[in-house]
Write a structure and sequence with these properties.
The structure is a homotetramer of 350-residue chains.
Chain A: H1 10-20, E1 25-27, H2 32-35, E2 47-49, H3 51-64, H4 67-70, E3 74-77, E4 93-99, E5 104-110, E6 114-120, E7 125-128, E8 131-134, E9 140-143, E10 149-152, E11 159-165, H5 167-172, E12 178-180, H6 194-199, E13 203-205, E14 222-223, H7 225-238, E15 247-251, E16 265-271, E17 280-282, E18 286-292, E19 295-299, E20 302-306, E21 311-314, E22 320-324, E23 328-334, H8 336-341, E24 347-349
Antiparallel strand pairs in A: 2-21, 3-4, 4-11, 5-10, 5-12, 6-9, 6-11, 7-8, 7-10, 9-14, 15-16, 16-23, 17-24, 18-21, 18-23, 19-20, 19-22
């Protein structure tokens, strides 16, 4: 699809280009091959972040700036192929957030939607529209689009989690809105665990009931590690691993059986010790976190050694193979939800 | 909207009617007020079945006919206002099924969809497309439209449950299909609990995974008492009861956040001791089972005393008030799912 | 699936049945084969109504009772296999309505939804929520669930149309509501043709615009003969007829691309002269009207000669073959929309 | 939400930043106010392209490069605030395409979806999966995601149209796929007008019919000027103009009543002579084409004089006011469809 102009008109074309440019006109044929590529070709790179080393920097930042001053004390995991973008894939953001004992990350809301995946510490909270979730390691917590949220750490140890947001997508559509609450914490509107109890067991408050308090399209925002790990291990005990995925469970929004948020899909997978996945590629660039175990990941032609809490990004359409050195549990999130809505998702399995 | 003809043409009209009749023509104006009524007016009646007395008859039937010979050994709860209809409301069927130790109810499938709500006994199974569910008291088990199912009792005690089906609706649309499997039991295709584990925790096998074995639109068929009761009690501990419903949770299909089956909605509710519900009416005729507690139900102008395992039917648009004499837990199912799809559901709260 | 009891317990069973009966309990095994049949088995019959003869009776009724007095002056086409039901199939109603010059059928609304298919006369109107449609032969006009509607004939000739409603379905779900407007005509709220213009051309008023006045889920209620006939004839000119259907176009609700109303599907088909359709059966009992041409219809093992304006009902799952003696155009409506929503629709093509 | 660090730690922070950078870690607090803004803040600018001047450049390009060599001979309308992006808004692409007599733009397909809005010439064709549409001025023609399409000009005059695509969005999600057909033209698979006839009149081929040949989710790809203009003028004759929009009709996909393509919404509007629209802003950056008339547009604080065929871009959340100097007809397209699916669309009306 590329174009190699090789004719006598080159000079005249260049002249035309120069004349048009101030009129905001530009020749498609000079860039068509970059705009409409035969397969995905962003410059995003596969990359791994060592948790230990990232954690050291994060704790150093903790000494230098307060959560309140920073609003959110987060180190962005920026894809080295997308410098200056604050993005981990072309459409997604990732960061590591630290809250120290006694700190509060003040209450705000915004159009980007966020997931939190806990990496370290236990007992800090995220409050969503005034309902607290007590966060434990490897819990998944959502703060959906335009819902008030604040975080606080009443424990005596630092708390660290992964933030996954669709900020680049919201910026792409030029649709960012945000506001801060006057108070740093939202008034408490429900008991911790209330939403999970009401909406998390294949049930919901009867329609029309006064107990039906969460947004109809987004009732659930806590997916505890304890629950998802049990389900994943049961699956592993019952089934033969899928050759490309191992044992893999997607998190769902119980309101519609769809993805956890309109733009973001998340899943967990378990690979038995010694399992080597068959090559697979998909258009949804994916961020992985190692929950348990050790593995070697091959992305396109690059190899990465992974251990607990390490973070790996696999860009769109780059082939992934995983070799589990011990039983491996991964969490992953991607933009598959958005891609499916827009008719863009594809995958290929070797 | 009724019509009182009172004119000189009566005789001529009667003559016309008589002439038309063999041509399958009939005057609307003589029946319009019966066909299009200002409010629902079926002859279905509120009614209560004492569990103990129904159970006695059922056990007597157990002495006289085998499950295999009967295909299903069930006593139909027929609404006394709808004699000969085998219906408990205009659109729904209910029956009490007995399986004795060692018996099997042979494998078949049909377009009516069914729910089972266990009343007595523990350890018999329902198998759906070859996956067994071990049934315990007050578990809800589904056998959706056109899925193979058989039941068996390997325990040493009788097992009794409520069958709730949409048979009248399938007959109404003249769309009944059924077939028997050659063997009385379906080959076992999965371990008991497999579907609940895969689809029952706000997760599902990743799309495209070989572990995704259930029908996409109907992945879950077991809602254990243990789970729903805990959720209901938590709700009761956290919330003020809704004045019309008490504490009420609907069962959902996790594939789409909708009703458990295309035609049937089910829910449970808890009324604290002494709670008296405000009057409510709705177009979905509902069958209730008392799970725990004692109550007085007033339906339109009739009163019923209820105790554990008793069954009550409340027809469309008849006002229901419940007075809980002790903490009351009810299970209920209705045709609300169908009515909502067809644009017919209404409710009124006093 | 039928049961032939042939044992020594017969007498004891009969005794049990007699004892249970007053308790509204009934043995399933005695009726199971009637309730859950291997294929549809209602007693609805295929039947044809000669238009000319039905028209004669209708005009005689016109002499004997006024539209206002009758509220609607309609002869019900009652299926001879369903006597006393006022139904043409198990789930649908059909009638022939007459409005004489100067008459008004007063304004009311009800939960049954209705279609009108004009058979004779030109220039009478149906008003839906105050917007008039001028009715011409073979126009399709809808009066959806709970929308106000009145009819009037300002011309000097009688006007006759087919009414197709889902009355039996609304009664089945015991969800009939109706009310009359105080005035016989609804105040005029829009110009004739307004809705068709706004919603009928693959467009709709921009969301949020003050011009978006119809219900979002049901914006269109007029499908003119002139338009549908042109589309059907174009299709016939462009395509090879489908062996089972001929050339067939379904009417759609432009709001969602689904059926014209939640319970009712309608279509038109054209069979070239000499075309004989291959046998097909489907679970949606269907009412046909001959718009143009002559044909022989074979339904199961019965034959019917059809000519313009004749009406034919084909019950569920009865095999239909059509032999077009001249170019044949048919209009048909059925309950397929409801059956699909409830998971019940099936068809088989030989 | 911005951050003004003003403390003694500045130096230490800078040191930390420098150390982290090679590890692809970056401090969120330094960029948070750019990433999550209180309102949309892209650097996209409002801009107008004079048709006459753009046309001159395009014709000059026509002298210098062939359609075949260019693959598509198009001048990109690049937003002057987004240099090097080939984008007209953050998420959309626009270009002016020229096909000279006798030329063919060869057959290809790609994941970006495209609309064509004809500006000049009559009689060239676009073929979609082998079905030709003869293009006339101000017709809207779609070439949906992954459908084969080629263009050709068999007339003796140049043909110019606006191309509107979602290329930036496909690149954002890193999901571009494309391929060329070996032949420059797709084999003809249907008669011109076939799809419009089958799917464009609130009807579709009966499901299961062999005539149902287009993709179920995208059956229609031609919205003729003749039809949309008549509908728009009828609306203008019948209704009071909406104060913010004038008379405005959105184009719909008849398969689902939604937007014309998964990412793109399109509409037309008519403003009576002298009409001045009240200020409105929306998050969907919009590209407008003047079809008829003259107007003054005020976008934020910039004014633009518009006449026939001029093109105007209004970025996200910039306030638009239109003053029609004569009766004004506009065509517009935006990314509202994508924004609504992802939960991002907002508008504000003064």
């Amino acid at each position: 699809m590329s174009l190699h102009l090789n004719n006598d008109n080159t000079a005249q074309l260049q002249e035309l280009y120069a004349e048009m440019r101030p009129h905001s006109l530009y020749p498609l044929w000079e860039v068509l091959s970059m705009l409409v590529t035969p397969t995905p070709r962003s410059s995003a790179k596969p990359w791994k972040w060592d948790y230990d080393s990232a954690r050291d920097y994060l704790l150093r930042a903790g000494d230098l700036i307060s959560a309140e001053k920073a609003e959110r004390r987060v180190l962005i995991l920026e894809n080295p192929g997308l410098p200056g973008s604050s993005s981990i894939t072309t459409s997604l953001y990732a960061g590591l957030q630290l809250i120290l004992p006694g700190e509060v990350a003040p209450c705000h809301r915004h159009t980007p939607c966020a997931l939190r995946f806990v990496l370290e510490g236990e007992g800090a909270y995220t409050a969503v529209d005034g309902e607290k979730v007590i966060m434990r390691p490897f819990d998944l917590v959502l703060t959906p689009n335009w819902q008030w949220h604040d975080h606080g750490n009443d424990t005596d140890a630092p708390m660290i989690w992964l933030d996954g947001l669709d900020i680049p997508t919201v910026l792409h559509f030029d649709a960012s809105f945000a506001e801060r609450l006057e108070q740093s914490s939202h008034p408490e509107t429900a008991r911790p665990g209330d939403s999970l109890n009401r909406y998390g067991h294949n049930m919901r408050p009867m329609r029309g009931s006064s107990a039906d308090r969460r947004p109809a399209h987004q009732p659930l925002f806590h997916y505890p590690y304890k629950q998802w790990r049990a389900a994943l291990r049961e699956l592993a005990a019952a089934a033969v691993p899928d050759p490309h995925l191992g044992h893999a469970l997607e998190f769902l929004n119980p309101a519609d059986g769809g993805s956890i948020m309109p733009t973001v899909t998340a899943h967990v997978r378990l690979l038995p010790a010694g399992f080597a996945s068959a090559p697979r590629r998909a258009t949804d660039g994916t961020v992985f976190v190692v929950v348990e175990g050790r593995a070697r990941a091959t992305v396109a032609d690059q190899e990465f050694e992974l251990q607990a809490r390490d973070l790996l990004v696999v860009p769109s359409w780059q082939e992934l193979r995983l070799m589990a050195e011990s039983e491996l549990i991964l969490f992953g999130y991607s933009d598959r939800a958005a891609q499916e809505k827009l008719g863009l998702f594809r995958e290929a399995r070797a």
